[in-house]
Amino acid sequence: MNFVMLVPIPSLALLLYLSHGAVAADGQWSEWSDWTSCSVSCGRGIRKRFRACNPAPGVGSRWCQGKYLQTENCDTTVACPVNGGWSEWNKWSSCSATCGQGITNRYRSCSNPIPMNGGRPCEGAPQESDMCFAIKECPRDGGWSNWSRWSSCSVTCGPGGTINRYRSCNNPPPMAEGKPCEGPKQQTRHCRASRPCPVNGQWSEWTEWSECSVSCGRGERVRGRACNQPAPQHGGLDCDETEAGELQILSCTATILNCPVDGSWSEWSDWGSCHSPDCSGSKEFSISMRQRSCNNPLPKHKGSMCQGVFLDAGFCNQPINCVVDGSWGEWSPWSCRKLVASRKRVCDSPPPSNGGKKCPGKNVQIHVRGEEDEEYREACGGKFPSDDEDLEGGSGIGQGSGDGIADDG
User: Fold this and answer.
1) Taking Cα atoms as reference points, which of 338, 334, 260 lies closest to residue 299?
2) Cα(275)–Cα(281) distance, rounded to whole angstroms?
3) Distance between CA 75 and CA 44 in Å, rounded?
4) Beta-strand (E) ranges in 158-246?
5) What is the pairing mode between strands 101-107 and 127-133?
6) How many CB atoms lie within 10 A of CB 74?
7) Is the pTM of this model over 0.85?
8) CB-CB contact of 161 with 151 (8 Å)
Protein backbone atom coordinates (compact mmCIF):
# COMPACT_ATOMS: atom_id res chain seq x y z
CA MET A 1 0.00 0.00 0.00
CA ASN A 2 1.38 3.45 -0.95
CA PHE A 3 0.92 6.51 1.20
CA VAL A 4 1.40 10.19 0.44
CA MET A 5 2.44 12.49 3.21
CA LEU A 6 0.52 15.79 2.98
CA VAL A 7 2.68 18.85 3.23
CA PRO A 8 0.96 22.27 3.77
CA ILE A 9 1.44 24.89 1.15
CA PRO A 10 1.79 28.22 2.98
CA SER A 11 0.45 30.28 0.17
CA LEU A 12 -2.75 28.21 0.02
CA ALA A 13 -3.22 28.36 3.82
CA LEU A 14 -2.74 32.07 3.77
CA LEU A 15 -5.38 32.45 1.09
CA LEU A 16 -7.84 30.39 3.12
CA TYR A 17 -7.11 32.42 6.23
CA LEU A 18 -7.56 35.68 4.46
CA SER A 19 -10.69 34.58 2.68
CA HIS A 20 -12.45 33.11 5.73
CA GLY A 21 -10.82 35.01 8.52
CA ALA A 22 -10.36 31.73 10.45
CA VAL A 23 -7.85 31.14 13.25
CA ALA A 24 -4.90 28.93 12.10
CA ALA A 25 -4.77 25.44 13.83
CA ASP A 26 -1.85 23.07 14.55
CA GLY A 27 -1.38 20.00 12.32
CA GLN A 28 -3.01 16.71 13.37
CA TRP A 29 -1.91 13.11 12.60
CA SER A 30 -4.16 10.85 10.65
CA GLU A 31 -4.82 7.27 11.82
CA TRP A 32 -1.99 4.76 11.34
CA SER A 33 -2.16 2.74 8.15
CA ASP A 34 -2.29 -1.05 8.22
CA TRP A 35 1.02 -2.88 8.70
CA THR A 36 2.83 -3.82 5.49
CA SER A 37 3.68 -7.45 4.67
CA CYS A 38 6.82 -8.94 6.27
CA SER A 39 9.95 -7.99 4.30
CA VAL A 40 11.07 -11.64 3.90
CA SER A 41 9.37 -14.82 2.76
CA CYS A 42 11.20 -16.99 5.30
CA GLY A 43 12.85 -16.47 8.65
CA ARG A 44 12.81 -13.05 10.43
CA GLY A 45 12.22 -9.63 8.74
CA ILE A 46 10.51 -6.28 9.45
CA ARG A 47 7.15 -4.68 8.66
CA LYS A 48 6.08 -0.99 8.57
CA ARG A 49 3.07 1.32 8.96
CA PHE A 50 2.60 5.02 8.21
CA ARG A 51 0.46 8.09 9.12
CA ALA A 52 0.06 11.55 7.62
CA CYS A 53 -0.04 15.05 9.15
CA ASN A 54 -3.65 15.67 8.05
CA PRO A 55 -5.09 18.14 8.56
CA ALA A 56 -1.97 20.12 7.95
CA PRO A 57 -1.18 23.04 10.28
CA GLY A 58 -2.27 26.54 9.40
CA VAL A 59 0.04 29.43 8.78
CA GLY A 60 2.21 29.97 11.79
CA SER A 61 0.98 26.82 13.50
CA ARG A 62 3.03 23.80 14.56
CA TRP A 63 3.68 20.79 12.40
CA CYS A 64 2.59 17.38 13.68
CA GLN A 65 4.84 16.13 16.49
CA GLY A 66 6.27 12.57 16.44
CA LYS A 67 7.20 10.06 13.74
CA TYR A 68 5.25 9.29 10.65
CA LEU A 69 6.81 5.75 10.38
CA GLN A 70 6.82 2.74 12.72
CA THR A 71 8.72 -0.58 12.22
CA GLU A 72 8.73 -3.91 14.07
CA ASN A 73 10.27 -7.36 13.69
CA CYS A 74 8.24 -10.09 12.04
CA ASP A 75 8.68 -13.87 11.80
CA THR A 76 7.39 -16.00 8.94
CA THR A 77 6.07 -19.49 9.48
CA VAL A 78 8.56 -20.87 6.92
CA ALA A 79 12.20 -21.63 7.89
CA CYS A 80 14.75 -20.40 5.33
CA PRO A 81 16.75 -23.02 3.33
CA VAL A 82 20.37 -23.45 4.49
CA ASN A 83 22.84 -24.67 1.84
CA GLY A 84 25.43 -27.19 3.02
CA GLY A 85 29.10 -26.29 3.37
CA TRP A 86 32.19 -28.54 3.54
CA SER A 87 34.30 -28.93 6.66
CA GLU A 88 38.12 -28.81 6.42
CA TRP A 89 39.84 -31.92 5.02
CA ASN A 90 41.14 -34.23 7.74
CA LYS A 91 44.66 -35.66 7.65
CA TRP A 92 45.66 -38.31 5.10
CA SER A 93 45.17 -41.85 6.42
CA SER A 94 47.98 -44.39 6.80
CA CYS A 95 48.94 -46.27 3.65
CA SER A 96 46.65 -49.27 3.10
CA ALA A 97 49.59 -51.53 2.26
CA THR A 98 52.31 -52.76 4.62
CA CYS A 99 54.56 -53.39 1.64
CA GLY A 100 54.64 -52.16 -1.95
CA GLN A 101 51.92 -49.90 -3.39
CA GLY A 102 48.71 -48.95 -1.56
CA ILE A 103 46.09 -46.21 -1.15
CA THR A 104 45.81 -43.31 1.31
CA ASN A 105 42.58 -41.38 1.88
CA ARG A 106 41.32 -38.19 3.48
CA TYR A 107 37.75 -37.13 4.25
CA ARG A 108 35.53 -34.11 4.85
CA SER A 109 31.90 -33.75 5.91
CA CYS A 110 29.02 -31.56 4.72
CA SER A 111 28.64 -29.99 8.16
CA ASN A 112 29.82 -26.41 7.86
CA PRO A 113 26.84 -25.91 7.88
CA ILE A 114 24.60 -28.96 7.47
CA PRO A 115 22.03 -28.42 4.67
CA MET A 116 18.59 -27.63 6.20
CA ASN A 117 15.05 -26.70 5.18
CA GLY A 118 15.51 -27.77 1.57
CA GLY A 119 18.96 -26.17 1.19
CA ARG A 120 21.35 -27.58 -1.41
CA PRO A 121 23.77 -30.35 -0.39
CA CYS A 122 27.52 -29.82 -0.71
CA GLU A 123 28.96 -30.20 -4.20
CA GLY A 124 31.94 -32.50 -4.76
CA ALA A 125 33.18 -35.70 -3.12
CA PRO A 126 33.57 -36.28 0.63
CA GLN A 127 36.68 -38.40 0.02
CA GLU A 128 39.98 -38.03 -1.83
CA SER A 129 42.37 -40.92 -2.52
CA ASP A 130 46.01 -40.98 -3.58
CA MET A 131 48.63 -43.59 -4.33
CA CYS A 132 51.18 -44.40 -1.60
CA PHE A 133 54.12 -46.74 -1.17
CA ALA A 134 55.08 -48.66 1.98
CA ILE A 135 58.63 -48.43 3.30
CA LYS A 136 59.46 -52.01 2.35
CA GLU A 137 58.78 -54.02 -0.79
CA CYS A 138 56.42 -56.99 -0.76
CA PRO A 139 57.92 -60.48 -0.56
CA ARG A 140 58.27 -62.19 -3.94
CA ASP A 141 59.19 -65.84 -4.29
CA GLY A 142 61.92 -66.77 -6.73
CA GLY A 143 61.24 -68.65 -9.97
CA TRP A 144 63.55 -70.80 -12.10
CA SER A 145 64.74 -69.82 -15.57
CA ASN A 146 64.67 -72.39 -18.38
CA TRP A 147 67.39 -75.05 -18.34
CA SER A 148 70.51 -74.23 -20.35
CA ARG A 149 71.75 -76.56 -23.08
CA TRP A 150 73.76 -79.60 -22.01
CA SER A 151 77.50 -78.93 -21.84
CA SER A 152 80.08 -80.88 -23.80
CA CYS A 153 81.32 -84.13 -22.26
CA SER A 154 83.93 -83.43 -19.62
CA VAL A 155 86.34 -86.07 -21.01
CA THR A 156 87.82 -86.59 -24.48
CA CYS A 157 88.48 -90.29 -24.03
CA GLY A 158 87.06 -93.27 -22.20
CA PRO A 159 84.13 -93.40 -19.78
CA GLY A 160 83.62 -91.42 -16.60
CA GLY A 161 82.74 -88.07 -18.09
CA THR A 162 79.80 -85.87 -17.21
CA ILE A 163 77.63 -83.34 -18.95
CA ASN A 164 75.82 -80.60 -17.10
CA ARG A 165 73.06 -78.11 -17.58
CA TYR A 166 72.06 -75.21 -15.35
CA ARG A 167 69.26 -72.88 -14.48
CA SER A 168 69.11 -69.68 -12.44
CA CYS A 169 66.69 -68.45 -9.77
CA ASN A 170 66.03 -65.18 -11.61
CA ASN A 171 62.62 -65.58 -13.20
CA PRO A 172 61.95 -63.63 -11.03
CA PRO A 173 64.66 -63.46 -8.37
CA PRO A 174 63.36 -63.66 -4.78
CA MET A 175 62.85 -60.28 -3.15
CA ALA A 176 62.06 -58.92 0.31
CA GLU A 177 62.13 -62.22 2.23
CA GLY A 178 60.46 -64.12 -0.61
CA LYS A 179 61.19 -67.86 -0.78
CA PRO A 180 64.20 -69.02 -2.81
CA CYS A 181 63.67 -71.44 -5.67
CA GLU A 182 63.22 -75.07 -4.66
CA GLY A 183 65.11 -77.89 -6.32
CA PRO A 184 68.59 -78.23 -7.87
CA LYS A 185 70.14 -75.53 -10.04
CA GLN A 186 72.30 -78.11 -11.81
CA GLN A 187 71.64 -81.47 -13.49
CA THR A 188 74.42 -83.95 -14.30
CA ARG A 189 74.55 -87.02 -16.57
CA HIS A 190 77.32 -89.48 -17.30
CA CYS A 191 78.97 -89.53 -20.73
CA ARG A 192 81.58 -91.67 -22.53
CA ALA A 193 84.18 -90.69 -25.14
CA SER A 194 84.84 -92.83 -28.23
CA ARG A 195 88.49 -93.77 -27.45
CA PRO A 196 90.22 -95.25 -24.35
CA CYS A 197 92.17 -92.99 -22.06
CA PRO A 198 95.45 -93.16 -20.22
CA VAL A 199 94.96 -94.19 -16.60
CA ASN A 200 96.03 -91.56 -14.09
CA GLY A 201 97.42 -92.68 -10.78
CA GLN A 202 95.18 -92.54 -7.69
CA TRP A 203 96.15 -92.56 -4.05
CA SER A 204 95.46 -95.56 -1.84
CA GLU A 205 93.74 -95.15 1.52
CA TRP A 206 95.84 -93.71 4.31
CA THR A 207 97.50 -96.15 6.70
CA GLU A 208 96.71 -96.02 10.41
CA TRP A 209 98.45 -93.29 12.39
CA SER A 210 101.69 -94.34 14.06
CA GLU A 211 102.27 -94.12 17.79
CA CYS A 212 103.38 -90.77 19.18
CA SER A 213 107.11 -90.23 18.77
CA VAL A 214 107.64 -89.15 22.40
CA SER A 215 106.72 -90.58 25.78
CA CYS A 216 105.68 -87.24 27.21
CA GLY A 217 105.14 -83.75 25.98
CA ARG A 218 104.50 -82.96 22.31
CA GLY A 219 105.65 -85.22 19.48
CA GLU A 220 104.55 -86.41 16.06
CA ARG A 221 102.47 -89.17 14.51
CA VAL A 222 102.72 -90.10 10.84
CA ARG A 223 100.71 -92.00 8.26
CA GLY A 224 101.37 -92.79 4.59
CA ARG A 225 99.77 -93.86 1.35
CA ALA A 226 100.85 -95.09 -2.10
CA CYS A 227 100.02 -94.09 -5.67
CA ASN A 228 98.65 -97.51 -6.63
CA GLN A 229 94.84 -97.36 -6.68
CA PRO A 230 95.42 -97.55 -9.62
CA ALA A 231 99.01 -96.92 -10.52
CA PRO A 232 99.50 -94.61 -13.53
CA GLN A 233 99.28 -96.52 -16.85
CA HIS A 234 99.47 -95.78 -20.58
CA GLY A 235 101.02 -92.38 -20.12
CA GLY A 236 98.64 -91.44 -17.31
CA LEU A 237 99.61 -88.85 -14.74
CA ASP A 238 101.19 -89.57 -11.41
CA CYS A 239 99.20 -88.85 -8.26
CA ASP A 240 98.88 -85.17 -7.38
CA GLU A 241 101.62 -84.27 -4.90
CA THR A 242 99.81 -81.07 -3.92
CA GLU A 243 97.06 -83.08 -2.18
CA ALA A 244 99.06 -83.87 0.99
CA GLY A 245 101.51 -86.16 -0.85
CA GLU A 246 102.56 -89.58 0.42
CA LEU A 247 103.08 -88.64 4.05
CA GLN A 248 101.09 -86.74 6.67
CA ILE A 249 102.46 -85.57 10.02
CA LEU A 250 100.27 -84.75 13.01
CA SER A 251 101.29 -83.22 16.33
CA CYS A 252 100.63 -85.39 19.36
CA THR A 253 100.90 -85.22 23.13
CA ALA A 254 102.04 -88.20 25.17
CA THR A 255 99.66 -89.60 27.76
CA ILE A 256 102.11 -90.06 30.66
CA LEU A 257 100.53 -88.26 33.64
CA ASN A 258 103.71 -86.81 35.12
CA CYS A 259 104.73 -84.99 31.91
CA PRO A 260 103.83 -81.30 32.35
CA VAL A 261 101.94 -79.65 29.52
CA ASP A 262 101.84 -75.85 29.52
CA GLY A 263 98.59 -74.23 28.46
CA SER A 264 98.45 -72.14 25.30
CA TRP A 265 95.83 -69.74 24.03
CA SER A 266 93.57 -70.45 21.11
CA GLU A 267 93.12 -67.77 18.44
CA TRP A 268 90.89 -64.83 19.39
CA SER A 269 87.29 -65.27 18.32
CA ASP A 270 85.71 -62.75 15.97
CA TRP A 271 84.35 -59.60 17.57
CA GLY A 272 80.78 -60.16 18.71
CA SER A 273 77.80 -57.98 17.94
CA CYS A 274 77.41 -54.66 19.73
CA HIS A 275 75.26 -54.99 22.84
CA SER A 276 73.44 -52.41 24.96
CA PRO A 277 71.15 -52.64 28.06
CA ASP A 278 68.13 -53.05 25.80
CA CYS A 279 67.59 -54.42 22.30
CA SER A 280 65.66 -51.50 20.85
CA GLY A 281 67.63 -51.10 17.63
CA SER A 282 68.57 -47.54 18.64
CA LYS A 283 72.08 -46.20 18.19
CA GLU A 284 73.49 -46.14 21.71
CA PHE A 285 76.72 -46.43 23.62
CA SER A 286 77.50 -50.15 23.56
CA ILE A 287 80.29 -52.72 23.68
CA SER A 288 81.56 -55.62 21.58
CA MET A 289 83.50 -58.54 22.98
CA ARG A 290 85.82 -61.34 21.82
CA GLN A 291 87.32 -64.24 23.70
CA ARG A 292 89.92 -67.00 23.57
CA SER A 293 90.41 -70.25 25.44
CA CYS A 294 93.41 -71.76 27.18
CA ASN A 295 92.96 -75.02 25.29
CA ASN A 296 95.64 -75.11 22.63
CA PRO A 297 96.57 -77.22 24.55
CA LEU A 298 94.96 -77.23 27.99
CA PRO A 299 97.47 -77.10 30.85
CA LYS A 300 97.97 -80.59 32.28
CA HIS A 301 100.01 -82.30 34.96
CA LYS A 302 101.02 -79.07 36.71
CA GLY A 303 101.84 -77.30 33.48
CA SER A 304 101.64 -73.50 33.45
CA MET A 305 98.36 -71.71 32.87
CA CYS A 306 98.06 -69.31 29.96
CA GLN A 307 99.23 -65.79 30.71
CA GLY A 308 96.96 -62.82 29.98
CA VAL A 309 93.21 -62.33 29.77
CA PHE A 310 90.68 -64.58 28.04
CA LEU A 311 88.13 -61.83 27.42
CA ASP A 312 88.62 -58.59 25.48
CA ALA A 313 86.03 -55.79 25.16
CA GLY A 314 85.85 -52.74 22.93
CA PHE A 315 83.48 -49.84 22.60
CA CYS A 316 81.28 -49.38 19.56
CA ASN A 317 78.56 -46.95 18.54
CA GLN A 318 76.20 -48.42 16.00
CA PRO A 319 72.57 -49.58 15.71
CA ILE A 320 71.83 -52.52 18.02
CA ASN A 321 69.91 -55.50 16.68
CA CYS A 322 68.62 -58.50 18.57
CA VAL A 323 70.61 -61.74 18.48
CA VAL A 324 68.92 -64.53 16.51
CA ASP A 325 70.15 -68.12 16.99
CA GLY A 326 70.12 -70.42 13.99
CA SER A 327 67.67 -73.33 13.65
CA TRP A 328 67.77 -76.33 11.29
CA GLY A 329 65.45 -76.68 8.31
CA GLU A 330 63.92 -80.02 7.25
CA TRP A 331 66.17 -82.94 6.19
CA SER A 332 66.47 -83.43 2.44
CA PRO A 333 65.42 -86.81 0.93
CA TRP A 334 68.01 -89.60 1.24
CA SER A 335 70.52 -89.81 -1.63
CA CYS A 336 71.58 -93.46 -2.09
CA ARG A 337 74.69 -94.73 -3.88
CA LYS A 338 76.51 -98.00 -4.03
CA LEU A 339 78.16 -97.69 -0.63
CA VAL A 340 76.82 -94.57 1.05
CA ALA A 341 73.37 -93.13 1.81
CA SER A 342 73.31 -89.47 2.80
CA ARG A 343 70.97 -86.61 3.43
CA LYS A 344 71.51 -83.01 4.47
CA ARG A 345 69.82 -80.03 6.03
CA VAL A 346 70.42 -76.27 6.05
CA CYS A 347 70.63 -73.87 9.01
CA ASP A 348 68.04 -71.42 7.60
CA SER A 349 64.93 -71.65 9.79
CA PRO A 350 66.01 -69.02 10.71
CA PRO A 351 69.70 -68.50 9.90
CA PRO A 352 71.84 -67.10 12.73
CA SER A 353 72.19 -63.32 12.67
CA ASN A 354 73.60 -60.52 14.77
CA GLY A 355 75.99 -62.83 16.59
CA GLY A 356 73.43 -65.59 17.16
CA LYS A 357 74.59 -69.19 17.66
CA LYS A 358 75.03 -71.55 14.73
CA CYS A 359 72.79 -74.60 14.58
CA PRO A 360 74.04 -77.41 16.86
CA GLY A 361 74.99 -80.75 15.37
CA LYS A 362 75.90 -81.74 11.81
CA ASN A 363 74.27 -80.76 8.55
CA VAL A 364 74.91 -84.15 6.91
CA GLN A 365 73.80 -87.65 8.01
CA ILE A 366 75.52 -90.70 6.45
CA HIS A 367 74.89 -94.47 6.56
CA VAL A 368 77.63 -96.73 5.13
CA ARG A 369 76.67 -100.04 3.53
CA GLY A 370 78.32 -102.94 5.28
CA GLU A 371 78.78 -101.15 8.62
CA GLU A 372 75.17 -100.03 8.96
CA ASP A 373 73.26 -102.29 6.56
CA GLU A 374 69.88 -101.95 8.26
CA GLU A 375 70.03 -98.16 8.48
CA TYR A 376 71.36 -98.04 4.90
CA ARG A 377 68.57 -100.29 3.58
CA GLU A 378 65.87 -98.33 5.46
CA ALA A 379 67.16 -94.99 4.13
CA CYS A 380 67.19 -96.36 0.57
CA GLY A 381 63.62 -97.63 0.63
CA GLY A 382 64.53 -101.25 1.34
CA LYS A 383 66.90 -101.55 -1.65
CA PHE A 384 70.62 -101.93 -2.34
CA PRO A 385 71.43 -100.01 -5.55
CA SER A 386 73.38 -101.83 -8.22
CA ASP A 387 76.82 -100.73 -9.40
CA ASP A 388 75.44 -98.49 -12.16
CA GLU A 389 72.39 -97.21 -10.30
CA ASP A 390 71.81 -94.42 -7.78
CA LEU A 391 68.76 -94.08 -5.56
CA GLU A 392 67.19 -90.87 -4.27
CA GLY A 393 64.92 -91.34 -1.24
CA GLY A 394 64.48 -95.01 -2.09
CA SER A 395 63.54 -94.49 -5.76
CA GLY A 396 65.91 -95.09 -8.66
CA ILE A 397 66.72 -91.99 -10.74
CA GLY A 398 69.38 -93.45 -13.03
CA GLN A 399 72.31 -91.42 -14.28
CA GLY A 400 70.52 -88.07 -14.37
CA SER A 401 70.71 -87.24 -10.66
CA GLY A 402 72.21 -83.93 -9.50
CA ASP A 403 74.43 -83.89 -6.42
CA GLY A 404 74.76 -80.84 -4.15
CA ILE A 405 77.64 -80.07 -1.79
CA ALA A 406 76.70 -80.05 1.88
CA ASP A 407 76.95 -76.70 3.70
CA ASP A 408 78.31 -76.26 7.23
CA GLY A 409 75.71 -75.53 9.86
Assistant:
1) 260
2) 10
3) 4
4) 161-166, 186-191, 218-224
5) antiparallel
6) 17
7) no
8) no
